[in-house]
């Protein structure tokens, strides 16, 4: 019985991996055959293919964190609505963080660090086009990052961009970064949702308001703090992604109203549910609650330079005095894990 359960889990895992492109079809058949499903391997692969996303339709999202002062300039973005729109739909970064928390190339094709991690050579993915038809090149990357730097910059990513050191292009498809000090986590800096890549003009500037990006959707209309209407980019460089014909994002800042919009069919998806009532929402037919691990965490900061926190016994007493499991079960309603 236990062996069958393990085989079923492994088979489900392989199906998921091949559907996400993490393993090839050949690898799928080979590994499924090794589990004892050689005869049915082609059928299983066919099932996965049939379950793959199909293009078409309109995707309606209800999102919070919207303001009338929102802008398509990623330097100003800081909440759910614009992050989902700008980074998730309209634009891309050089690097993205996958579901495993790994930094992987997005608009970059490769990153090559020097031995001391102070020099990074970033080669761009070829054949990527902006919605306007302009081809992605090194000038776009340099202009996008420079946008966040300088004494007059008010970008939320100013310190991140300034830590990227000197930049220079080596041909049209390569950018070289010379950092002040080695940084093995440099790829993660390039995944920042502020540091998205825009299309530079002949003067080296970017008109962010145009919304010209490389993402799966282009901007048809945008009413800050109210709604946005996006259209599928037929030339998107990621195969199998960006499948909806249209995406309509509606600003619903109130959590209860957002959950009600989903329950009554006004939208197809929402983010940030009320943890107290999300279980009730999940009981409604046709509604599925999806949970994923993120990077948000709770800490207990103490200034160890001042009394009484300069006493390690005090710090340890405070730490031991907190029932972390109770915190997860009551405050987070079970939606969390111990660090």
TrEMBL record:
Q: Which family does it belong to?
A: Belongs to the bacterial solute-binding protein 5 family.
Species this chain originates from: marine metagenome
The family database entries (Pfam families) matched by this protein are listed as: SBP_bac_5 (PF00496)
Q: Is Nuclease a UniProt keyword of this protein?
A: no
- Residue limits of the Solute-binding protein family domain? 104-337
Which Gene Ontology molecular-function terms are recorded? Answer: peptide transmembrane transporter activity
The biological process GO terms on file are: peptide transport
Protein keywords: Signal, Transport
Question: Sorted alphabetically, which SUPFAM superfamilies does this protein's record hold?
Answer: Periplasmic binding protein-like II
Protein name, per record: Solute-binding protein family 5 domain-containing protein
